Amino acid sequence: MKKIICLLVCVFALLPGFSKTQEDELIIITLYDNHQFSANTRTDWGFSCIVIFNGDTILFDTGTNREEFVHNITALNISLKSIDKMVISHNHGDHTGNVFYVLNENPNMEVYLPSQLEGDFENNVESLGANALIEKQSVSIANGVYLSGEMGFQIKEQCLIIETSKGLVVITGCSHPGIERMLRKINEQFNKPVYLVVGGFHSQDFTASEIGVLIKEFRDIGVKKVSPAHCTGDECTKRFQEEYGTDFIKNGTGKRIGL
Q1: How far apart are CA 180 and CA 233, in angstroms?
Q2: Segment 200-216, tens digit of pLDDT
Q3: What b/e sequence results for 93-114 when a residue is b if at least 16 CB atoms lie within 10 Å of its CB, and e otherwise?
Q4: How far apart are CA 49 and CA 173, in angstroms?
Q5: Which range has the worst mean pLDDT, 20-29, 41-50, 116-125?
Q6: I need a labelling partner for 48 at 20 to 30 A (CA). Which of 65, 79, 84, 207 fits?
Q7: Quick one: what percent of the chain has pLDDT higher than 70?
Q8: What are the distances in angstroms from CA 247 to CA 38, 115, 124, 254?
Q9: Residue 52's beta-bridge partner residues?
C-alpha cells in the first residue's frame, strides 16, 4: 500500500499545475520606491518591501506618504494583517513614514528599530500594542532571517539578511554607512557569499569614477546579483546594469523577486 501511495505522489508531481512550495522559497515585493515597475503602482521618494521566507512575512521599511503606500499595497493585494514582523533600517522619514499606520491596522507584531528611534518613537510603537525591539548586534529574528546589527556613526543603520541555499540575500534601506563596508562586515560575520543585494546604495551623487570603484568593490566581495533601488541613482543603476547584465534585476514599485 505504501508503495502505491508513493507512486501516486510521484505521478501527481509530474502533472501540469502541481507544485510543492519549497520551505526556503524567498519572495521580495517592492511596495514603495521612486521608480515604477508595475503600471498600477505609484512612485514616491522612499523605500519599503515585503519579505516572505520560511513561513514568515516581514515588512522592511514603510516608505514616506500614506496615500502612495495604501495605493500600492491595495494594488498589489498585500494584507497588512499578514505581517509578522517589521524592520526599520534607520531614522529617516522616507523609511518610517507609515510605521504607525501599519500598526494601527495590525499591532500584533515585533518591530525592530534602530537605536536612534529609542525613546518617544519606541514608546509610541508599544502604545499601539506592538513589541518594540532594539538590537545593536547581529541577531536572528526568524528562521533563516537576521539583522545585520547597527552600522555607521552619525546615521545608525541596519539591514536585513536572509540565508538561502544560493547564498546570503541582503536588503538595505539607504546604506548610509557605505554599502561596500556593510557588505564586507556581513561577509565577515556570516563567512558566506553574498548572492543578491536589494535596496538603496546611497550613490545618487557619486561621480563616474566613484561608481566604478563601487562596482569593483561589489565584484571583489563576490556579489552575484544586484537589484538597486531608491537612493542608488539613475547613473549608478545604469552602470550596475551594464556590468551585471543578466545578473541585474530591475527594481521598482510592484517588482516581485523570487528565489
Answers
A1: 16
A2: 999 999 999 999 999 99
A3: ebbbbbbbebbeebbebebbbb
A4: 10
A5: 20-29
A6: 207
A7: 91
A8: 20, 35, 41, 19
A9: 27, 57
Amino acid identity, position 156: K
Task: Give the model's pLDDT for residue 23.
Answer: 55
Residue with cell 505504501: 2
CA–CA distance, 186 with 138 (Å, rounded to integer): 9
* Residue 32: closest CA among 45, 48, 14, 19: 48
What pTM value is reported for the model? 0.89
pLDDT digits (tens, 9 = 90+) for 151-197: 998 999 999 999 999 999 999 999 999 999 999 999 999 999 999 99
In angstroms, the Cα distances linking 134 to 38, 88, 217, 229 are 34, 10, 30, 26
- What residues does each domain of the chain span? 22-258
Mark 123-143 as b/e (b = at least 16 C-beta within 10 Å): eebeeeebebbebeebeebbe
